[in-house]
Design a protein that fits this description.
Blueprint lengths: L2 H7 L15 H11 L4 H7 L21 H11 L3 H6 L13 E3 L1 H5 L30 E3 L1 H5 L4 H23 L1
Helix pairs in contact: 1-4
Length: 176
């Protein structure tokens, strides 16, 4: 199905957050799900996108690459080019189980392009990354369980914030 056929066949979402250039696909689709107050899995099913791709142990934030049919349908729903959505997909070589997933909390919660739209950067999904390209500091990490419990991006950011606070309290108690 071409992008033009998809546009003719599907009614676009009333509101569709635009993907940021350096955003992970799972983060963008998670922001769509957040907007409509549902989980990523529910949003996938409701939009008739087929079977949810196989996910790793960290869940939907590390979303497997999509086929052209799903990309075209998402592009029509979001009113963006399929190549835009294609450009934020996770490379197949990054689709590996993780003991921890890195992130920069400052980058996560402060999006200079839109302060009301925090997002997960695609680069943080690279298994070889250790430092924040923006701040030059070592990235923090979170265990898969913290990420898997989130139903959408809003919940993911909340879970990561709570996890960080718990870890800070634990470290403060050990430091006494």
């Amino acid at each position: 199905m071409s992008h033009l056929q998809a546009q003719a066949n599907y009614r676009p979402w009333p509101y569709a957050p635009r993907p940021f250039q350096d955003e992970a696909f799972g983060s963008w689709f998670g922001r769509v799900a957040s907007r409509y107050r549902m989980t990523v899995e529910m949003a996938w099913e409701i939009n008739g996108l087929g079977q949810l791709p196989a996910l790793t142990n960290v869940g939907w934030i590390l979303f497997a690459p999509l086929d052209n049919t799903a990309l075209d349908k998402l592009a029509a729903l979001a009113r963006v080019e399929a190549k835009t959505i294609g450009s934020i997909q996770t490379p197949v070589s990054w689709m590996v189980a993780r003991r921890r997933l890195p992130f920069c909390f400052r980058c996560l919660v402060l999006n200079p392009m839109d302060v009301s739209a925090p997002y997960w950067k695609r680069a943080w999904l690279n298994p070889d990354i250790t430092d924040c390209c923006e701040h030059g500091e070592q990235l923090e990490t979170a265990p898969p369980s913290v990420l898997r419990r989130a139903g959408n991006t809003e919940q993911l950011i909340s879970n990561v914030g709570k996890y960080r606070r718990r870890m800070e309290k634990r470290q403060a108690r050990r430091g006494r």
